[in-house]
Amino acid sequence: MAAIALMLACGSCSKKTTEVVSSAAYTNFETTCMGVEHDGSQTLRAWGKGNNKADAVEQAKKNAVNDVLFKGIKGTGPCNSTPLVPEVNARQRYSRYFNPFFKDGGEYSKFVKQEKSHETSEIKARGTSVENWGVIVTVDREALRQQLEKDGILAPGTSH
Hints:
Layout: H1 2-9, E1 17-19, E2 32-36, E3 42-50, H2 53-71, H3 90-93, H4 95-101, E4 112-114, E5 122-126, E6 131-139, H5 141-150
Parallel strand pairs: 1-5
Antiparallel strand pairs: 2-3, 3-6, 4-6, 5-6
């Protein structure tokens, strides 16, 4: 809770990386909506943990795509709270598709990009053995839906 308060207090800081209390490195934060672009893509604050910044940022990107696909983006904001694949246990059911999709450098990376233009676009918490990074990413929800239709995961014309 203190980490969230510290992040909010630093919302107007001018540097692009905000460092928060080290105990936040072990906290699981939800992906949150920051906005929807005119093309339907969603701008999100996503979180990832890793041994270093690169691993944590990559995990945050995977988490953002995973949340758009299977959880929807909860909370306030204009983001779509309905997951693209609303089927229960879809990740497990289609594991032959999604395991390679989410591997390092996998297909998921075509649908997400990190935004670096925002002030405080990165939030960092470093513990003794892990770093937790919150980054702003954009997920191309429409292109992702089209790819899933093309690959037979979603029925054509699915509107989520």
